[in-house]
Structure formats: C-alpha cells, structure tokens
Amino acid sequence: MRRTTIKHFAGLGAYLKKMSIHVVDDAGGLVFRRSLPFCPLAVRDGLGEQEVAPHWIVHESGQISIWLQRQLEGLGLPAICVDARSAHRMLSAKPNTSDRSDAEGLAHLARSGWFTAVHVRSVDADRLRVIIGARDHFMRLRMEIEAHMRGILKTLTLA
After folding, report:
1. CA gap 8, 111 in Å, rounded
2. Could you report the per-residue pLDDT of 113-124, keeping only the tens digit for each?
3. 1: pLDDT confidence band, cut at 50, 70 and 90?
4. Distance (Å, rounded) from C-alpha 23 to C-alpha 27?
5. For residues 115 and 93, is the Cβ–Cβ distance under 8 A?
6. pLDDT tens digits for 51-77?
7. pTM (2 decimals)?
8. Do 88 and 141 fall within a single domain?
9. By residue range, what is the domain housing residue 54?
10. How far apart are CA 38 and CA 16, in angstroms?
C-alpha cells in the first residue's frame, strides 16, 4: 500500500498585536486555524503542536513583513512574502474581510501558487543601504553649510 504525502499550506494574517494562521491541505480542506500573539515563535510552536510542516507559509508585504520574513526564515520555516496589492485583489473578492478570512485567503493562495513573491532584502543589503543613505545625507548637509557660510562671508566682506 502506497502512502501519499499530503502537502500543507499556511496563510498568515500578521498585524501589530496578533496574527491569524490558517492551514489547508493540498485539497483545500481546513487542517487548523488559530489566533496567535504577534511572535514568529508562536507560529513555529503552533505548527509544532499540530504536527504540521507547511510547504509554504504565505504572508503579505507591509510595514513589518521584512522583519517577519527574516524571523520566520531564521526559525527554518518556509515563509514567502507576497505582494500586498495582488493579494488584496484576490482577498477583496470575499464579502467580509477580517484577520481570519485574510489568513484563509492567503492559505488558498499558497495552495494554488497564484501569487507574486516579493524579494526581501538581506540584512547586509539593508546595512549598506543605510550607510549609503547616511553618507548622502551628510554630504548634502555639508554642501548646504558651506553654501550658507559663503553667503554669510559675502555679505560681511566687500570682496
């Protein structure tokens, strides 16, 4: 007798204080859903309690998505950040939207594979971006101060 492996897909509706997780199997049947505190460890522990190892865990891009993506990947979870605009189009087809229904919609989106993954920058890329941005800001300030000083000196001297 051959045993088929069932794939599980999770949708994560992440908000600042709590998040909802919804897990479906590859046929679209509900495996479990739960409301969790906003903590990546809670996601890992919740999946571990149910003994579910999702093929994908999908969440929307947003203010906290970069941090959440890095934390979930750091815990060894197969997280994918999807474009919020394209996900919103799919999720807005439902009559009522809530944290739970968003998580459910994201789980079905993960199951279907019809999503646009968003590239999440690495920590090193973010550090470099901050350094370059800070240098640019300081260079502009320096040029502004130099120009201001030239203007003051011009008015005070007859040269």
Report:
1. 8
2. 888 888 888 899
3. very low
4. 11
5. no
6. 888 989 999 888 888 999 999 999 999
7. 0.74
8. no
9. 8-112
10. 7
